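Need residues for this backbone.
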């Protein structure tokens, strides 16, 4: 009887030990899961970047003034340029993307985190500070749309160029490089928030 009791106790101890080890493995794997680096999502490092100047007013740059800074927003096969005059007539995702790029262009780094969900921010590296950004040729295209809870999860391919890139917002792009990104957006009837960002996989 004592021998059986001892076997049961030892068995329980072994099982408990296995559970603790498994929980430890899960905890460690979560701890070392790499965060999404929005500053360099591609992992590429440009050979050279422009000097950082937080006092520069990019709207006084005559060359940049000629660039197209409006957002070309394509949704369900139809597209239009979103401008200061018409963006309020766009759907929630369109409005969000227009304001998102306005924020980046104007260097409003303190406002920037508000475009992302809390869950994404917990697992991402966002720029703490960036200068005004000379973004141009901006396009946002809906790729897919799936119902989720009280709204939809929408996937967008996003493209843009940065003139005189200094690396404070994106450190993996040169002036002539365009690398598309995927933005996952949770959309309701009146709101849109970015929940994911990734680089398209090369097939």
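Answer:
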């Amino acid at each position: 009887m004592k021998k059986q009791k001892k076997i049961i106790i030892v068995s329980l101890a072994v099982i408990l030990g296995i559970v603790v080890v498994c929980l430890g493995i899960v905890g460690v794997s979560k701890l070392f899961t790499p965060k999404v680096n929005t500053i360099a999502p591609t992992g590429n490092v440009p050979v050279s970047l422009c000097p950082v100047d937080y006092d520069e007013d990019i709207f006084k740059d005559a060359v940049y003034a000629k660039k197209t800074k409006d957002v070309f927003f394509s949704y369900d096969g139809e597209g239009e340029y979103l401008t200061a005059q018409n963006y309020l007539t766009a759907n929630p995702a369109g409005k969000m993307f227009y304001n998102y790029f306005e924020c980046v262009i104007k260097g409003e780094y303190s406002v920037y985190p508000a475009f992302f969900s809390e869950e994404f921010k917990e697992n991402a590296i966002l720029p703490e500070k960036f200068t005004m950004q000379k973004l141009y040729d901006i396009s946002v295209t809906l790729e897919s749309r799936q119902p989720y809870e009280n709204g939809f999860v929408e996937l967008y391919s996003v493209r843009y160029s940065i003139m005189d890139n200094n690396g404070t917002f994106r450190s993996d792009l040169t002036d002539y490089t365009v690398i598309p990104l995927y933005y996952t957006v949770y959309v309701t009837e009146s709101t849109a928030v970015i929940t994911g960002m990734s680089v398209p996989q090369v097939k």
